[in-house]
Specification:
Elements (H helix, E strand, L loop, with lengths): L1 H11 L13 H10 L3 H17 L7 E4 L13 E4 L1 H5 L11
Antiparallel strand pairs: 1-2
Amino acid sequence: MVGVLLTLANFIGRDEMPYINKPRPYKKEYEQQVERGEHPNRMERQRARRSYDKKGIDRKGKDIAHVKALSKGGNNNDGTRLESPSKNRSFRRTSSGAVK
């Protein structure tokens, strides 16, 4: 198993795999997330999941999709819907990788 991890570490281009023999730095990860501006969108997704749970809607195996994507400036007030993960996580792309 260690050989596999070392091989994987070399493939990734690092000398060692993260978090082996040391605790995971949750606080540092959180601070980086806030710095990158990802925190508000994560909270918006969490509020959407909780609202579906509060209504008693079974969302097992489904994603809560925002009608207007959070990355495009949307929020929960713009509307949410249940979608299959494959439909929600795959969008057509341009040759540069941007969403069509």
